[in-house]
């Protein structure tokens, strides 16, 4: 009897190994094959002033965070941390206008297909989350902005390494997320823009800003996640903070309308401030990889809020990361304590992701640095640094600016008092 049991177990193991081997073979084929049969979409740039403005709005909120990285605006490609390291090593591409290292030689249609299908001009798959349901008009606007002559797209020769998928990564992209090999043959319309439109808010959350993908568990695309109302927006997507100078894993928070675990108690004003400034109603700092939506207008953000409020509440509590969540404490005249309590240390302390960014303040007048601290977006539109104007008054900002300049080895002008 025992021999029969062992034989049965052995057969089962062999079958599992054969199945796993076959699945890996299929996954590797799907990742490496040439997708010449995926037609180029009939989408060309929108070069109108309105189109370029809309394109910048979408690009800054969606594309720049991946292709430029936090604190930068030139899309030269950076190391990505949006997926667990078990899936591979990921780098975004240089998408400046350089004809060799960037996308200067790509056609509008080739760029559009890359966004829709994650298939490049050589018909090869790249491990970039696709946007298969982004409307034609929004895609045309993004391409219009990229081709507008904006200095951020001036040719750059930087070329990040190619992304490398591990065997689990190939399985995830091939089966869990799926490779979008469907040609776009019909126009995808953009819903009518309205603050009170659940449809428009759903389009933004699932097809443009990817709120659904990042704030719902699993690796399925946003469209698939939307089919699971019990878990959509409940959080739990995993990010690795270690390469960014953090500690351990970060699970995306629950943003369902749950009053106990989500953002159900947030007012519309709370939501608008958090999305634009990066500070929640209870004083927590929205840390990377969560972007700041400074380029989104109030109608868009209100539509997002309307959509979120229409969804099913989920009371699942998402645990904080090992290092805790930075929280704003009442400002005081101790700049070292402010540097920590305001969350500055999360990004700029030794060993953190943006330690070197402090050197940008070196040699600047303390008053200018203080103004930067309170309203960084006034100096660098699109920056991912939170806005502290409502949290730090001018005197405390001056004290903190002196402290920051001291950390850079810079000097502080005489006669300036905090």
From TrEMBL:
Residues 50-150, 330-408 form the Cytochrome c domain. Keywords: Heme, Iron, Metal-binding. InterPro entries: Cyt_c-like_dom, Cyt_c-like_dom_sf, Cytochrome_c-type_DH. SUPFAM superfamilies: Cytochrome c. The keyword Secreted does not apply. The keyword Metal-binding applies. Gene3D superfamilies: Cytochrome c-like domain. Pfam families: Cytochrome_CBB3 (PF13442). This is Cytochrome C. It comes from Corallococcus praedator.
């Amino acid at each position: 009897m025992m021999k029969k049991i062992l034989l049965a177990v052995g057969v089962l193991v062999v079958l599992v190994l054969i199945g796993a081997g076959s699945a890996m073979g299929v996954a590797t084929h799907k990742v490496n094959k040439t997708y010449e049969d995926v037609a180029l979409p009939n989408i060309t740039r929108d070069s109108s002033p309105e189109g370029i403005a809309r394109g910048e709005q979408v690009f800054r909120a969606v594309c720049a965070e991946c292709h430029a990285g936090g604190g930068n605006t030139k899309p030269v490609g950076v190391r990505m941390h949006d997926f667990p390291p078990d899936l591979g090593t990921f780098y975004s591409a240089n998408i400046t206008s350089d004809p060799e290292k960037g996308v200067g030689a790509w056609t509008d249609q080739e760029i559009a297909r890359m966004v829709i299908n994650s298939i490049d001009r050589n018909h090869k798959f790249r491990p970039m989350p696709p946007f298969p349901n982004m409307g034609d008009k929004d895609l045309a606007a993004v391409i219009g902005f990229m081709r507008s002559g904006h200095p951020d797209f001036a040719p750059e020769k930087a070329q990040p390494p190619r992304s490398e998928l591990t065997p689990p990564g190939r399985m995830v992209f091939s089966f869990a997320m799926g490779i979008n090999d469907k040609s776009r043959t019909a126009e995808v319309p953009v819903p009518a823009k309205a603050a009170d439109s659940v449809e428009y808010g759903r389009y933004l959350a699932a097809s443009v800003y990817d709120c659904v993908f990042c704030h719902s568990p699993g690796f399925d695309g946003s469209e698939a996640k939307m089919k699971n109302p019990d878990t959509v927006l409940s959080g739990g997507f995993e990010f690795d903070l270690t390469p960014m100078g953090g500690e351990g894993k970060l699970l995306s928070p629950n943003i369902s309308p749950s009053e106990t675990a989500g953002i159900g108690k947030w007012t519309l004003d709370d939501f608008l401030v958090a999305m634009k400034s990066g500070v929640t109603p209870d004083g927590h700092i929205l840390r990377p990889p969560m972007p700041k939506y400074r380029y989104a207008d109030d109608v868009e953000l209100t539509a997002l809020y309307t959509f979120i409020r229409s969804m099913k509440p989920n009371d699942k509590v998402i645990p904080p990361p090992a290092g805790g969540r930075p929280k704003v404490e009442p400002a005081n005249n101790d700049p070292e304590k402010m540097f920590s309590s305001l969350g500055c240390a999360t990004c700029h302390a030794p060993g953190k992701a943006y330690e070197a960014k402090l050197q940008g303040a070196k040699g600047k007048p303390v008053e200018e640095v203080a103004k930067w601290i309170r309203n960084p977006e006034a100096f660098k539109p699109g920056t991912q640094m939170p806005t502290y104007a409502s949290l730090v008054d001018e005197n405390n900002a001056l004290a903190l600016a002196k402290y920051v300049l001291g950390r850079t080895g810079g000097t502080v002008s005489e006669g300036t008092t905090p």
